[in-house]
Amino acid sequence: MKRKLLSLSILFLTLASFLSIAEVTRYNVKTVPDTEILNFSYVTDLSSVISPSVKDSINFYCRFAKDSLGAEIAVLTLPGIDTGSYGSLHEFGTELYNRWNLGDKKTNRGLLILLVTNPDEREISFVTGYGLEGLLPDAYCKRIQSNIMVPLMRGGDYGPGLLEGVKASCGIISGDVVLPDSSEEDDDWVGALAIFAMIFLGIMAIAVAAVRAEKKRKERMGQSLTCTNCGVKGNMKYDRYVVLVRPTRKSVGTGRYYFICQNCGEENYKDVVIPKDSDGTGFAGSAGGRPFVGGGGGRSFGSFGGGFSGGGGASTRF
Ligand SMILES: [Zn+2]
Fold first, then answer.
1. The whole model's pTM is what?
2. pLDDT tens, 196-209?
3. How far, in Å, are 169, 216, 230, 238, 269 from residue 227 at the CA level?
4. Which 3 state secondary structure label does DSSP give 271?
């Protein structure tokens, strides 16, 4: 009798574990939560496959895309979509894009990058807004996916794969990276490596330019300050930037740049207005060499400017 009970319970346990493995959380566009978006992040990681540091890096490039390239990029991972309601991941993505209204209303420069992680349905999809279709045509989306993202993701490196995909997209949107036109080269590794190298160089150039601009801004700010303690003007060293009041859709925020007087060591500061709908940090945080912290940047939901996608983009299963 005891043995029978034991084997029964083993059977139940096996069944239960089988069911829990087989069961994939499936989303429709209405059940994708806004929590991450409201939490000042461009990344919504429902599959929990992106490490905090990689997430920070993705946010860095998304913020850069918004501030410097005028393009809104959002990243979403999810275990699965409700396959009964959508014919494809791309169809799901297009609907979600238009629910979130990525990109500015006038320019429609938005890009939604989706990843389904369920092992049986692994797929990447890019959905582009009308304003990006020219710069980032479907063929380019496809090449970023198959040449750059899939090789990383096949090995399980989902976060790094998404990060490289965002970087490559930034490079192409910026115009600093031009993909060679020979599609036959796509399949061989030399071609893929060349593309990767070009994108990397392009991104480095952009990042260096952005960091330089922010450094200049701080230098100018430091030069304009007169020490409240010793009265010496312009002898300041930048120390840190803090968001005092985070902006919202309706109200501006306040940021504070701290400087140390090189004459007497006194801490001085200068407050700046952060525009409505802005993430509040811009490059201020990143250019100081500190890593982005969770919630340290991003955008309010309202800053998704009302953009629309007609279904541009591409998908790759892997
Ligand atoms: Zn001083």
1. 0.63
2. 677 667 767 777 77
3. 44, 20, 6, 13, 9
4. strand
What residues pack around ion ligand 1 (CB closer than 5 A)? 227, 229-230, 261, 263-264, 266
Distance 264 CA to ligand 1 centre (A): 4
pLDDT, residue 95, reads: 92
How far is the centre of ligand 1, averaged over its atoms, from the C-alpha of 257 (Å)?
A: 16
- Please tell me the CATH code under which domain 23-201+305-317 is placed: 3.10.310.50
Other CB atoms within 10 A of residue 34 CB: 11
Cα of 215 from ligand 1 centre, angstroms: 21
Domain residue limits, the chain: 23-201+305-317
pLDDT tens by residue, 242-268: 888 877 777 888 888 999 999 999 999
Residues 313, 78 contacting (CB under 8 angstroms): no
In contact, 136 and 169? CB cutoff 8 Å? yes
Cα–ligand 1 centroid distance for 243 (angstroms): 24
